[in-house]
UniProtKB/TrEMBL annotation:
This is HTH lysR-type domain-containing protein. It comes from Acinetobacter gerneri DSM 14967 = CIP 107464 = MTCC 9824. Keywords: DNA-binding, Transcription, Transcription regulation. GO terms for molecular function: DNA-binding transcription factor activity; transcription cis-regulatory region binding. Gene3D superfamilies: 3.40.190.290, Winged helix-like DNA-binding domain superfamily/Winged helix DNA-binding domain.
Length: 304
């Protein structure tokens, strides 16, 4: 397929892009039939037309099944940004009528729901109660993914630990999350914590997060023999519960296992660190009205 330039984006192009996104979401032409209300042969013709207009091969289809090409995956990411921009335009038009209507997209890192200070939960509850035509969309993801999607406007806001602030984002402090070192009930330390000192900790295998952590947290992990890694806090909990590893967890997340006698903290006074949890938004002079309303409710919730 020869490279070509797309000199003008028409309404028909946008229609074809939406059909392509639906097929990708459904992972096949046949599954997309009922959603799009058109036949597989019509979908196939639309895909061929789109490929001709863009000058790239978007997907493989046939007996082997549906699969995106590298170019198709890249185009799909562009479509997501385009869809977010259209939604942002729709939200701004609705603002002209002082009527909240549209999507509110928020990204949250895993395991914040157990935090006793439920600022996000209470704010979303009030937003939903007072604005029945606002559709709340929550996605759970990594810090870097949430940052990227807030920056390119696919997310209106994100709740993440503040480790390395980015210049294109605003940070609103929610609370500080306290983390302690834990061992599981089958670990040799569980019944003998009184018999060891801090210097002895190097004798035991520990878990190192393979995501970005604060310098304070990094310094404490250097006291341990980190022989395993985990991509998130749930993975750390899994390894602690094996009884073969010690690891740091937020106290609100570990609370259930501690109360059930399945974990206990180690050297609570010495081995602890605090991480600020912030709500991030893209720097903008004119945020959409749904986001402004959400931030106003959040301020009231925090001050109650």
């Amino acid at each position: 397929m020869k490279p070509k330039k797309l000199n003008q984006v028409t309404d028909f192009d946008i229609k074809l892009l939406k059909i392509f996104k639906t097929v990708c979401d459904c992972h096949s032409f046949s599954s997309a039939e009922s959603i799009l209300g058109i036949s597989r042969s019509a979908i196939s013709l639309h895909m061929s037309d789109l490929e001709n207009r863009l000058g790239v091969r978007l997907c493989q289809r046939g007996r082997a099944g549906f699969a995106l090409t590298d170019e198709g995956r890249e185009i799909l990411e562009y479509i997501k940004v385009l869809t977010a921009s259209i939604e942002d335009f729709r939200s701004k038009i609705n603002q002209m009528h002082n009527h909240l209507k549209g999507d509110f997209n928020i990204g949250i890192i895993n395991n914040l729901v157990t935090m006793s200070t439920a600022y996000i939960t209470n704010t979303l509850a009030q937003l939903a109660q007072e604005n029945s035509e606002v559709v709340i969309n929550i996605s759970m993801s990594t810090v870097s993914d949430i940052e990227c999607r807030v920056l390119d406007n696919r997310l209106h806001a994100g709740a993440i630990p503040q480790v390395t602030p980015l210049p294109g984002l605003d940070y609103y402090h929610l609370y500080d999350e306290n983390s302690f070192l834990y061992c599981g009930q089958n670990h040799p330390l569980f019944e003998h914590l009184e018999d060891i000192s801090l210097k002895d900790l190097k004798k035991w295998n520990a878990v190192l997060p393979n995501y970005v952590i604060t310098p304070e947290a990094s310094k404490l992990h250097q006291l341990l023999d980190c022989s395993a890694t985990a991509s998130d806090r749930e993975g750390i909990a899994f390894l602690i519960l094996t009884g073969k590893f010690v690891g740091f967890l937020p106290d609100h997340y570990a609370r259930k296992w501690v109360s059930d006698g399945m974990m206990r903290p180690i050297f609570q006074d010495d081995l602890k660190y605090s991480t600020p949890i912030c709500l991030i938004t893209r720097k903008s002079k004119n945020p959409n009205n749904i986001l402004k309303t959400f931030m106003g409710i959040l301020e009231l919730v925090k001050n109650r």
